[in-house]
Amino acid sequence: MTKHKLLIAVISFGLTWAGIIKAEDQPIEQQLVDAMNKVFGVHPGFRANHAKGIVTEGNFKPSPEAGGLSRAALFNGSPIPVTVRFSDSTGIPSIPDGSAKANPHGMAIKFHLPDGADTDMVINSFKFFPVATGEDFRDFLLALAESPADAPKPTKFEQFAASHPSVPAAFAAVSTPDSFADEEYYGIDAFVFVSATGARQAVRYQMMPERVVHLAAADAAKQLPNFLIDELPERLKRGPVTFHLRAQLATAGDSTKDPTIPWPNDRKLVELGVLTIDKVVPDSAEAEKKLLFLPGALTEGIEKSNDPLIDIRDGAYALSFSRRSP
Ligand code: HEM
Predict the structure, then answer these.
(1) Which residues form ligand 1's pocket by a CB distance below 6 Å?
(2) Is 50 a catalytic residue?
(3) 240 CB contacts (<8 Å, ≥6 apart)?
(4) What distance in Å separates the CA atoms of residue 267 and residue 185, rounded to the nearest whole number?
(5) What is the pLDDT of residues 169-200, one digit of tens each?
(6) CA dihedral 84, 168, 36, 88 (to 10 degrees)
(7) Are 182 and 207 within 8 A, CB to CB?
(8) DSSP codes joined into one string, 165-208
(9) Which of 52, 58, 119, 237 sits a CA distance of 20 to 30 A from 253?
(10) pTM greater than the 0.85 cutoff
(11) How is 300-323 classified by DSSP, letter by letter?
């Protein structure tokens, strides 16, 4: 999101507060962050979503194939230092890591490019998104807020899920991993690679661990509240953790604008490189406050697709950052 758009969001937030603009007239980015605050509560200093996390560091080594698809400096062959934040879903900073509500887990990566600029990738363990538009995501969150445990059945959320089949389908496909390192993460939104010759290819990212290990729901519920956050530093003491970044390539006719529709499994997958994580930053709780990962923070050679969620996410993340930063 541009500074201009952020300014509009911040100004209109002030006007709502003054009772001048009604909630439904607010920019959708603001309606989304407000809806998150309604469901999860307001926790000063924390993200409106994915509030609980851990910050790590490492590097990314691109493959030669990646450079053929995109002329981005990210893929030109040299190793790129990275900052990676793993997280639980929800805006609740004390959520138990094994709670079903902590799914999908998140992985946000900042690639520190040779020219001093950064490019980001913000991905999670959903294979596809539950809804296709910002308005539907807002309504999903509001339906959740209006469906406490004692709400009459069918609850507002059950009604929303019944009319949006991708909601139950997306949640049925996620479960708790035994480690942030043993989970696969998906980009969900489509991006466009531009090659050295100007060829354009729509892609979706997949971040694959060395092995995937999921817990049965009953076992997940029995884990200690911080078991994922505590396990990662222990694992890193024994050695680095690696992931393989892949691009799934769209073919003609694959929709790039609907993140609820995964592309068929037979689409070509290209290994883009190996991401190695070797340490947790010394003060993760402080470091995460200063970090803002934006799905639309791209670099020359990687462009946004026509997926409407990318700009909306940029706006919502920037607004959440402005509210959580003193
Ligand atoms: C319209 C759709 C979405 C909205 C409105 C939204 C909103 C948000 C907000 C407000 C935050 C907190 C940002 C901050 O304070 O820095 C956040 C964090 C996050 N979101 Fe989303 N999100 C959306 C879709 C997605 C999708 C599709 C993915 C994965 C592909 C995703 C993955 C994440 C992750 C991993 C984080 C944590 C980032 C970090 O560690 O700083 N979100 N989201």
Answers:
(1) 32-33, 47-50, 53, 85, 87, 106, 108, 122-124, 129, 134, 137, 187-189, 291-293, 309, 312-313, 316-317, 320-321, 324
(2) yes
(3) 58, 276, 277, 278
(4) 17
(5) 999 999 999 999 999 999 999 999 999 999 99
(6) -30
(7) no
(8) THHHHHHHT---BSSGGG--EE--S-EEEE-TT--EEEEEEEEE
(9) 119
(10) yes
(11) TTEEE-S-THHHHHHHHHHHHHHH
Q: How many angstroms separate the CA atoms of 89 and 176, rounded?
A: 11
Alpha-carbon gap, residue 317 to 293, rounded angstroms: 8
Taking alpha carbons only, the member of 302, 264, 271 closest to residue 121 is 302
Distance 324 CA to ligand 1 centre (A): 14
In order of 52, 107, 124, the CA distances from 184 in angstroms are: 19, 9, 8
What pLDDT digit, counting tens, does each position of 132-181 carry? Answer: 999 999 999 999 999 999 999 999 999 999 999 999 999 999 999 999 99
Alpha helices in the chain (DSSP H): 3-17, 28-40, 64-69, 134-145, 156-163, 166-172, 217-222, 227-238, 284-290, 309-324
Backbone angles phi, psi at 92, to 5 degrees: -100, 110
